[in-house]
């Protein structure tokens, strides 16, 4: 990775892309420290917003912007939710399927629908956040705020999400890597120094050594599974197309072990956390209320929460993999192109074989995601770590995955420019 960065620095165009990406990420991080209007900072500092398990999780994915109640307090999560929902709706709604088949023009329309959906979600979540802060569970953060002030907070939060989305799209278009993924990665990594400082102040040397070993093992496991794939051999027979004879050959169809990525974890955590937040809000901070006690039972890191969390991750992994890969469609494409799997008849038998292989390898990927998501909670509880030290398998999965994808894009850009230079020298 360091070698790729050093080589990219020598190319003016790539150097400009790196500068632009760094500038956009710096602008996003600067916005994480711009406070919302009307927020009582003293009450916020004493309210322990970052000591709650749920709000602490939000703080990690927003780079501390949620804990600071800044203009980017909602982060990029509304856009991610909208993009995932639109991707699922593309499979279910025929009109969106037609747009997806139209290529770049159709994709631009789907992207526009995603932006509008993001705007609606941002407004709804902004209103919910204001109501949550007005509940008084973390003190009178919005004390003395009138209707106009609350409306200004809602508009500011909604605008912050749209600006963050704009930053991500600019990075994707003019920078290097996927902008949305890089923003999430920058938010997660920004919390690492505080966690390390807290660990040094409150933890022992043995705890730091154990956490270091566990972190290295988790990163190695994530890289191993993310890069793992089952290669299905595909043979193409010689055939005549018009007056030309096409050459046959053997290739392979790669089936990734973790085809769903981190999306099942995001789905599962969203599905479990929001009911807990709503229940706590309905209880009004009354710890004797049965609603509050029910919220505590299913709040992280309780046993019911972890069990449901793992089961939902496995279920969503199979669901999203089925959305991403259609065995029947791939079998039909192979049959039309004259390809077949050795020992398997084309058509329906090929689809059944692909489905069988995909089911088995997806089970391993689903269990791996569940373990990665649940294990950090168990480690944190076993070592009695404070909530400010969030050892999240989800965070590590995102950071490692985005880093690998960014390095691949950087290497492909370098290879493309090396080929261009080689061709110019050959034909000069």
UniProtKB/TrEMBL annotation:
TM stretches of this protein: 69-93, 113-133, 145-168, 175-193, 205-225, 262-283, 303-323, 361-383, 389-407
Membrane topology: Multi-pass membrane protein
GO CC list: plasma membrane
Keyword Transmembrane helix: yes
Keywords per UniProt: Cell membrane, Membrane, Protein transport, Translocation, Transmembrane, Transmembrane helix, Transport
UniProt cross-references to PANTHER family, sorted A to Z: SECY/SEC61-ALPHA FAMILY MEMBER (PTHR10906)
Function: The central subunit of the protein translocation channel SecYEG. Consists of two halves formed by TMs 1-5 and 6-10. These two domains form a lateral gate at the front which open onto the bilayer between TMs 2 and 7, and are clamped together by SecE at the back. The channel is closed by both a pore ring composed of hydrophobic SecY resides and a short helix (helix 2A) on the extracellular side of the membrane which forms a plug. The plug probably moves laterally to allow the channel to open. The ring and the pore may move independently.
Family: Belongs to the SecY/SEC61-alpha family.
Protein name per its UniProtKB record: Protein translocase subunit SecY
Provenance organism: Rubrobacter xylanophilus (strain DSM 9941 / JCM 11954 / NBRC 16129 / PRD-1)
């Amino acid at each position: 990775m360091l070698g790729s960065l050093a080589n990219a620095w020598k190319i003016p165009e790539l150097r400009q892309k790196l500068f632009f990406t760094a500038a956009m990420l710096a602008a996003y991080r600067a916005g994480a420290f711009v406070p919302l209007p009307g927020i009582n900072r003293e009450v916020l500092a004493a309210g322990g917003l970052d000591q709650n398990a749920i709000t602490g999780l939000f703080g990690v994915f927003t780079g501390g912007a949620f804990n600071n109640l800044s203009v980017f307090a909602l982060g990029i999560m509304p856009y991610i939710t909208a993009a995932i929902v639109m991707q699922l709706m593309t499979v279910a709604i025929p009109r969106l399927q037609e747009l997806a088949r139209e290529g770049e023009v159709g994709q631009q329309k789907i992207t526009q629908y995603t932006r509008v959906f993001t705007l609606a979600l941002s407004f709804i979540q902004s209103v919910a956040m204001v109501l949550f802060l007005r509940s008084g569970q973390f003190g009178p953060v919005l004390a003395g705020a009138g209707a106009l002030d609350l409306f200004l907070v809602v508009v500011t939060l909604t605008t912050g999400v749209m600006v963050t989305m704009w930053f991500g799209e600019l990075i994707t278009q003019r920078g290097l890597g996927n902008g949305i993924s890089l923003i999430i990665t920058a938010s997660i990594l920004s919390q690492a120094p505080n966690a390390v400082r807290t660990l040094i102040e409150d933890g022992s040397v043995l705890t730091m050594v154990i956490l270091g070993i566990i972190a290295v093992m988790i990163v190695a496991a994530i890289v191993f599974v993310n890069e793992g794939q089952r290669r299905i051999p595909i043979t193409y027979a010689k055939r005549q197309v018009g007056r030309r004879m096409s050459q046959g050959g053997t290739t392979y169809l790669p089936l990734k072990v973790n085809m769903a990525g981190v999306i099942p974890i995001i789905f599962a955590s969203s599905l479990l956390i929001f009911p807990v937040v709503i229940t706590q809000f309905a209880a009004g901070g009354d710890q004797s209320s049965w609603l509050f006690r029910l919220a505590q039972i299913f709040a992280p890191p309780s046993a019911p929460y972890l069990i449901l969390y793992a089961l939902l991750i496995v279920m969503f992994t199979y669901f999203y993999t089925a959305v991403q890969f259609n065995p029947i469609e791939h079998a039909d494409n192979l049959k039309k192109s004259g390809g077949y799997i050795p020992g398997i008849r084309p058509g329906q038998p090929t689809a059944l074989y692909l489905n069988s292989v995909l089911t088995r390898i997806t089970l391993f990927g689903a269990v791996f995601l569940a373990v990665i998501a649940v294990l950090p909670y168990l480690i944190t509880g076993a070592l009695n770590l404070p909530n400010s030290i969030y050892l999240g398998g989800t965070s590590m999965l995102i950071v490692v995955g985005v880093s690998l994808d960014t390095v691949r894009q950087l290497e492909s850009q370098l290879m493309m420019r090396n080929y261009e230079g080689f061709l110019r020298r050959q034909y000069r």
